[in-house]
Amino acid sequence: MVRDRLKEPLSLKAKLLIICLLLVIVGGGGFVAFKFYDFTQNNPKFCVGCHLMQPAYDSWAQSEHKQLNCHDCHHLTIIEQNQLLISFVLKRPATVPERHKDHVIVSQKYCNQCHTAGGKGGQINKSLFHAKHVYMEQIECTQCHGEVKADKSGLHHFLPSEKFCQKCHPGKAVHGEGMGGLACLNCHTDRTKDLKPGRKKCLYCHSNNENIRKELKEDATMDVRFFAPDAATIKKAKKISFDEKAPMQFYCYECHKPHTAGKVKPSNEDCLRCHMGVAKIGKHKVHLNMDMQCKDCHKPHIWKVTDASAKKDCVQCHEYRSPKAFL
């Protein structure tokens, strides 16, 4: 009897019920599969499921990239994903393996999606720093912005550390008085084509003019945005008065060499490299033979000896004589 009933055709109601059941199973399974895929691919909390990822997750959650998910930057092939899974399940590593020296952990093409024209991040195509390092030198973004120290600090911080540039620019330590603690980008700037500091950048610390600091900040280029000297450094810096009408309107670095020990303050030798014949003019030789410094008479950043300055300075050694009589 049961066999006979099985041979009977299913009623329409039974067919609809079976179809609905299959749809629920397939749809439910598909929904679960989609949610699982979405969780593994688009939710950073999946990555933190590995006990090794907690420090990386915590630093990411406090970074400027916290609105992105891991896979916006980190892309693995199916094979790499499975290798990672097998390694985690079978080997249970206690630490993250060291990165290979030249391994690019995030390709530049992913950075460019946000950081070039039309992207939602800072535009590197407007920065002379990036014009030099990315487009001309073809340096990968993570070479500078992916710095991770031995203690894993710096992970997901993205900004290079204060002295990071010296890894590629050895011998460029700063020897200036009070400048040893400055970051490279406290001075070097993407405002000039050669990336050397313009006069205004030096006056950021060496002037009491708040308008200069205000102008540099409002200009909002990369150097001051991320690497502005702190208030204590500015306060300690020697303040100079600068006459816009003074002769020899050079960049500061023409005379001051902060990357060369003993050359932060110019000596007579430095002056005489440009003023080669000056010893033959007037009484210059007499003063040089007395081991006087050029700047004893020619005050820095003013240079010209006037009647007023002669009455103040020359009389320290002898009676007043007009500067015109010097020649």
Structural commentary:
The chain has helices at 2-7, 12-42, 44-47, 54-61, 70-73, 78-91, 108-115, 128-136, 141-145, 184-187, 199-206, 210-219, 222-227, 231-236, 268-274, 284-289, 294-297, 307-313, 323-326. The longest helix is centred in the N-terminal third of the chain and has 31 residues, at 12-42. Among the domains are: 23-91, no CATH class; 174-264, no CATH class; 266-327, no CATH class. The protein is mainly alpha-helical and 327 residues long. α11 (199-206) crosses α12 (210-219). The N and C termini lie far apart (135 Å). Helices cover 46% and strands 0% of the residues. The model has no long low-confidence stretch (mean pLDDT 83).
Brief overview:
The chain has helices spanning 2-7, 12-42, 44-47, 54-61, 70-73, 78-91, 108-115, 128-136, 141-145, 184-187, 199-206, 210-219, 222-227, 231-236, 268-274, 284-289, 294-297, 307-313, 323-326.
